[in-house]
Design goal:
2 domains, Peroxisomal Thiolase, Chain A, domain 1, 33% helix, 10-stranded mixed sheet, alpha/beta, single chain
Length: 421
Amino acid sequence: MEHRVVVTGMGVISPVGNDVSTFWNSLVKGVNGIRLITDFPTDGLPVKIAGMVRDFDGEKLGLDRAFVRKQDKFVQYGMAAAIQAVAQSGLVSEGDEANIDPFRFGVYVGSGIGGFETQYRETAHMIEDPTGRWVSPMMIPAMISNMAAGQIAIRFHANGPCIDVVTACATSTNSIGEAFRAIRHGYADAVIAGGCEHMATPLGIAAFANAKALSRAEDPDYASLPFSADRKGFVMGDGAAVLILEELGHALDRGARIYAEIVGYGNTCDAYHATAPRPDGKTQARCISDALKQAGYDESKDVLYINAHGTGTRLNDSAETLACKTVLGDAAYKAHITSIKSMTGHMFGAAGAAEAIATIMTLNEGIITPTINLTAPDPECDLDYTPNKAVECEASLGISNSFGFGGHNACIAFRKFRPEA
């Protein structure tokens, strides 16, 4: 028996807002979250801009002081987003009384990198004193990428499946997709799913810049340029996003508010190159096609919204455009497409979950958020990417694409919840 899976809670920490309402309103207004880096000196670094999380106060967001002191930022961001999502869902009350069997309650929260800041800081201590006596005993539990999932499970007494997906830029889309499958096939009643990342560190900037992946734009207001003819790489972004996925009957029995239904998931691998996407878009297309098929996509009836991976790298944007055309044919030109990375930068392991939230909000609010700075479109990227201004549109089906280093492709599909479906 296959179970229907719905979304009953959402939370986000991002360069354009540290809650879902602020995040969504910023996207609709085309607010640019990319700024000059001020968290550390950038003298000598080739890149001086990023989508930084601003005004983050862990204690005000529900983290205790000791947790903030001991945990890497990626864990702090992930926990803060999870607290928001769980509170919205009502799965766990203020007194920690759960509305669910703890062994049917899981956590699928991933990170593409893990504790980059911790690794950088503690490595410096080791280089300074090779005896290692100044290396923190908290280095490993602060650095390893599964720690966000583990800490979230501890906080909410989730004794069910706890998985840290690590698939680079596709991490949190895969996390949501695999959580969807776990509930659909009866292994859990609810899962906290998403991703978190803190890459904007000196080491992160240097490594991605030297790999020729980052934009070296000096103007933060014209830096992240998905589908633009003058795009020159992605802009690094930080943050976290978490969704509560729940089996439909379980959600209805407890009277939960339902924000959307997950109706499809595709997952393929390019098996082509460590960092470059497959240029013909064939494997990306299969991933999208699988999600649409599961979702029951009907070209004659559905108004399709696509939250594109849209990184602003020359190869990715062209391959994604080709993949959409391969799957949809002429209907690709009717689809409404957005890259919110034009505003947030690339949140890497958190990107897919943040974009899933944007997709759900698009379906619920009837607004297609813009791809800002799209003033000079690439002729190869000739679909409707919603340039510069939001538009009103009642989309019936929304998909969110994520394509990661290593050739990892993931796509998840959402519809507004319909009890009779």
